[in-house]
Amino acid sequence: MAARIMNLPKHGLCHLMRTSALARHYAGSTGSASPPQFTTLSVDDKTGIATLTLNRPPANALNAAFMGEIARSIKELEKSKCRGLILTSSSERIFCAGLDLKECYQAEASHLQGIWVALQNLWHTLYSTPLITVALINGHTVAGGGMLALSSEYRIMLPNFKIGINETMVGLAVPMWLIDTYLNVIPNRRVAEWDLTASRIYKSEHALKAGLVDELAASKEQGLERAVAFISSYPKHSLVARAITKRQFREKDLKNFEDNRQHDLEIFLSNIQKPNVQSYLGEYLESLKKKA
Ligand SMILES: CCCCC/C=C\C/C=C\CC/C=C/CC(=O)SCCNC(=O)CCNC(=O)[C@H](O)C(C)(C)COP(=O)(O)OP(=O)(O)OC[C@H]1O[C@@H](n2cnc3c(N)ncnc32)[C@H](O)[C@@H]1OP(=O)(O)O
């Protein structure tokens, strides 16, 4: 296989940023020209399939720079001849642990704003991309990590890991755009409501039964093979029609998000800065440390 590693930011990415006021804020706050720090990207020239590997040890926790990097890579791939994207992790235990909680604790409002806007942008970019997207979930994936997996079109998971959205457990409500994303995968509203209100975390095997993931693979190698097979199952001539059809399915969710983007940010900023939420967050971080 002829694979190459792309150093995307060399291509000049400022023009890729979305043009809303919030996105401009984000572009300004993270700087779009820095080289990739937390991901590696390889593209197979023969299949046109890109593999973006998350690499921010120990937990692939999402901060603004990391999320910006992922979103910029997707935007750059959209401009190339790539047909599909596989998201995976360099860690053998964790696909993504969600937002970097250490960066959410006792942080300045401007920092929290940068994090949330980056999360919004990343969700929008991944959920709306015309690329065929597969999450190869080779480790635990919760909260913002669950968002990455659920925003992709197809999920392949390795056994004995956890997947779910646990925001209510950290004392915060799940935003509407993530509820819509969940419903796009688990259309049974009762199950979805129960899962999200109860912060239900599934083990891989149960996630498969529930339809939260589409396949289990015995190893990362097998998962990669299956991901390539899924993406390659779409004939080349169908790609444009496929992308339009995907967009139509997701359009209402994307519009709802755009209509409420500023409000969603305000809710996050208001909630995350509440003393009781900060205090709980401090305890939660301690509990993560004590496990070691
Ligand atoms: C509170 C702010 C959230 C506000 C959001 C509100 C509403 C929005 C809702 C949805 C939108 C989507 C966005 C969601 C927000 C989030 O993502 S909040 C993040 C919530 N994440 C978690 O609760 C995960 C916590 N981690 C774990 O449960 C476990 O680590 C794991 C992922 C299951 C892995 O377990 P394992 O045993 O393998 O590893 P360790 O626990 O030993 O962890 C290794 C290492 O990594 C550090 N770490 C883990 N998670 C995080 C994290 N989220 N942020 C920062 N650091 C993390 C952990 O402390 C260990 O570090 P070390 O001791 O230094 O080795």
Features:
alpha/beta; 292 residues; binds ligand LCXROUX7
Give your account of this protein's structure.
The protein is α/β, with parallel strands linked by helices and 292 residues long. It has a single domain, classed as 2-enoyl-CoA Hydratase, Chain A, domain 1 (Alpha-Beta Complex). 50% of the residues lie in helices and 15% in strands. The chain has eleven helices and eleven strands. It has helices spanning 21-30, 64-79, 101-104, 109-128, 144-151, 176-185, 189-197, 204-210, 220-232, 239-272, 275-290; strands at 3-5, 39-44, 49-54, 84-89, 94-96, 132-137, 140-142, 154-157, 162-164, 201-203, 215-216. It has a seven-stranded mixed beta sheet, sandwiched between helices. It has a four-stranded mixed beta sheet with strand order 5-7-9-10. Helix 1 (21-30) crosses helix 4, helix 4 runs parallel beside helix 5 and helix 4 (109-128) runs antiparallel to helix 10. The chain is globular. The chain starts with a strand and ends with a helix. Mean pLDDT is 89; it is low at 1-31. The chain binds ligand LCXROUX7. The site of ligand LCXROUX7 has 32 residues, from helix 3, strand 7, helix 5 and helix 11. Ligand LCXROUX7 is lined by residues 58-59, 61, 93-94, 97-102, 104, 119, 140, 142-144, 147, 162, 166-167, 170, 172, 174-175, 178, 272, 281, 288-289, 291-292. Pfam families: ECH_1. One of its GO terms (molecular function) is isomerase activity. InterPro entries: ClpP/crotonase-like_dom_sf, Enoyl-CoA_hydra/iso.
